[in-house]
Amino acid sequence: MEEKLKPSVKSEGDGGAARKVRGKHVAFMMVVGLTSILQGTVTKGWTAVLPKMQDDPHSFVKTDDDVAWLVSMTSIVGIFASLATGPLVEWVGPCLVLAIVMGVSTALWLLMVFPPHKVVFFVARAGLAACVYAVSTVSLPLLAEMSPNKVRGAVATLSEIGGSTGVLYGYLVAFLFPWKIATALCTLTAALLFLPMWFVPESPYWLVRRGRLDDAKASLQRLMGSTPEVEEELAAITRRPTATQTSLLQQFTELRKGQNLRPVVLVLSFFVLRELGGRSCIMMYTVYIFRDAGVELDAFTCTVLVGAARLVCTCVTAGILDHVGRRPLLIITAVVAAVSQSVCGLFLFLQLPGASLVPLVAVLVYIAAYGTGVGPIPWVYVGELVPSPVRSLGASIITACDALVVFSINLAFLKLIGYTGLGITFLAFGGLNLVIALIVCIWIPESRGVSLQEMEDAFAKKHSPDDLKEPLANKHSPDDLKEPLANKHSPDDLKEPLANKHSPDDLKEPLANKNDSPDDLKGPIRV
Question: Where do transmembrane segments lie in this chain (predicted)?
């Protein structure tokens, strides 16, 4: 039976539930979250221009192999970019990394519009891939550190909303304009956020790890205002294990501990399974899928509908995630995604009546489920479940492994549906999404309204599956949790835990019985 515990008024270093969120604080979090617009446009939205590039005799994209490499190369580059981003963040700071990435991305987009050679075009595409995977690695942990508990779920979905906006934006410009103009308009996804990122205060967690306590205090004041809570927050951050993690080697050492490794592996499993479940294939090969399925509606129009459905559902998630909870929402949406893909696969495999319309409806249902839970919640878990002592390293490993799986499946997708058919492929996708729901049911605790430190404590203990579902309850009352060390003793008792109310003379002679003489103590032990 799951017990529900009220979130504590003060949390350990990640924002109290009762703290009022200032408008400036919200603006800073929105800027960080919306950097993922670049990610959505580069990895998925822009790929909708590829059919038009193949039709243009003057473009550098001619064959299906060119298309496959342009789609999948973002992932293979992302593997190395993700692994390099973790140490880079620890060296220069997460906010500075995001600001630099926005500027570099703007230049790379322009290089893709006017490429002097095919190699330059592909290199610019690879550079953009490195930039977006840097954004993926940095933005979610940074948002988790910036946001108070009571709105952490909604804030974390900002990243997914930004990604969905980027996807829809890329689909729209690909639908409305020739590929060169569409690519030029994609430049705005980075250029508009370049200057705002320079005004976002640096992560106080990173500043504490670097020993810059005065700068950390100034950063907290910009986020929270000049309030007494700033001192409390700074003290809480310095007490956390992450305050001592200053090197990559230390994080590797911490990762070997089961309490840190278990949540990293669980979060990683979500990313691997959702990619093997067709997430990137459906989003990146949308036009090709609808053409292959024989959908009567124009494939570009269907693609725009897919992007709109994802954005709307992701916005809905932002409003309900902190009320419904992560766990039930992820279970339900994973099951819906599995059912929709299985139905689509059966209709295509058996060539049942209505097969020209069912793929569109099934893909839209899948996208709705993805946008509501399967898409945003794993990214929320990167910020919430990955422990602070290994957060930079864990996020890098998760993003790199995700990139490796995306590269493999996207490179093979067109050949896969050529060998097995679209129907069998979608049936396999459905089965893998169902596994996500099973993992959540068995191993994942609810993190709604729970502080980051309390989530770490839940994995630090060897719980049973039932205990993990209620990591904070521990069958204690809220009053017990407010005084975990006191055990209802008075302050005087805590000040003298060993004295047991004896006099100083008693402590000086702990073994001497007051009835014994010094000569007795010098003599042998009497039996």
Answer: 26-47, 67-89, 96-114, 120-143, 155-175, 181-200, 297-321, 328-350, 356-381, 393-413, 419-444
